[in-house]
Fold:
Amino acid sequence: MSLLSNLLGGTEEVTKGSEVSGAILSVDVGSVYTRAILLDVVDGMYRFVARGEAPTTDIPPWNNVLEGVGRAVRDITTATGRQILDDEGELIIPESAAFLGVSCFTATASAGKPVRAVLVGLMPDVSLSSGKRAAESSYLLLTDTFSLADRRSPEQQIEALMRARPDLILIVGGTDGGAVQSIRKQIDTIAMACDLMERDRRPTILYAGNRDLHGEIETRLVDDVGVNFIAADNVRPTLESEQLNSAQTYLAALYHRQKLHSGGFADMGSWSKGGIYPTAHSFSRAVHILSELDEQDILGIDLGSASTTVAACLKGTNYLNVMGSLGMGHGARGLLASKPKIESLTRWLTYEPDSADDVLDYVWNKWLFPQIVPATKNSLEMEMAMAREIIRNAALSARSGWRGVQPRGPLPAFDTILLTGSTLAQPPHYGWSALVVLDALLPLGITRIVADPYGLAAALGGVAPFSPRAVVQVLDTGAFVDLGTVISVSGRARRGDVVIRGKLKPVGANQAEVFEVQYGSIVRLPLEYGVQAELSLQTHHVDIDVGGRRRSHKFKVAGGELGVILDARGRPWRFPRDAEQRHEMNREWQRSMTQEELE
Structure:
């Protein structure tokens, strides 16, 4: 347990030996649905026991998230017989008897209005880029940015700040011990703008710049202007180093504070010791825990309605990016933000839409009615085409901040990709989830794809500070669904040429299955869930990027929901210009992954 305690930075609840024991309830308030998760001790170990789900009720006619929370929790009561809420709808905590109440409650949220923020920094390519990455760790809406490259006069900047009406001003800039004069000028502008605002409308100031100015800036903004001031560690202490953890932690806490002014969030926050934290923050923590426990590089994708979260643990460094205007429902119009290219969506279809308006209509309908689900095969294809483009754009944006990674080209080698969000984790067939991820991310080498159909990732991230034991034991008992191991090749060959010959021998089997794979195809090898096997491959004209250019490979693999997947389409690959050829390729890939005959 010491490993997980260290991961959490010596959280007070863990270090004092007061780890929670007993039933744990975790609630996540999403922009469309509210989900409740119950963890409890069964036969001496924590298990995932039950879940409940209800529409989120932060909109009229309810305007109170507790209505949706109550419905989701009552689903758990119906399933388990445990009474969790009293007659007035209040949480029963702590447990007072068997099957009465819970010992711990955690809450995360992504619903509601984002925090309006203005970013102030010095150099666009240095401090501002770090500030943007820090801001992308939470549900912020950046309404304006100020830097030394800003051509507006101080008067125009003051007017812009007042017009933006921010909830938060994030100030970055200056290395520790570096120049201070430019920052002082920006602080003067901010102080004058805040002084002109109504007192109850003045924003919180989060300062994450040159630490030598902490005291001076606090005096200027708190004593002279009367704003709420928070000092975090410098996001760019030197030109070569970046430290975002402190600023990201304060941004998560500010999110909780802002939620207290929304209907029902204050009551729900009072049930939890930790308050309400961003879903993305807890999801990232879960990815970090998985990475450390498995000693792997892990990429997490949370494809939500209003936003998409990319959490990565790569070579010991953690990254978190929230694309607040890119999602499958409320954020669908993010796909159409600038000169929409309809072809980016239609290239994934097995049919030709009657007109471009049909595609646009589907996207706009998802924005207006995010709760709708595909009712036909064509609409399912459109849904998955949207998912591909959202994930592709989100990953491109996120990887720009990953150290040592080129902004374009092959994705870094991740051992595991974790998928959550109903589109990816609760599809009609898990073959769709794997196909969408392979198309959008084009992973290389050997990758395990894992789905989170019950929304446990964010729940476990929220529970971790209070009960590391619960997190480890729930993970050990199978919190996620393993879709299978994917082997992806790079290089090019003629379509139809045999580029892989191999054998798959399950442990204990007398004979190995012999197979061939043609270039341009995706093949699923049957292997029962959890069964170990030896996979031997011989490649021709293509490579498997696992270090060195070998033509013969042997791997130990385990079966998943989809068995073992061989992606022999090469990297990079391009669609043919001919529309019918493109449609036929999509049909082949869909048949291979879902093993369903297309109409």
About this structure: Residues 9-17 have pLDDT under 50 and may be disordered. The first helix runs from residue 2 to 7.
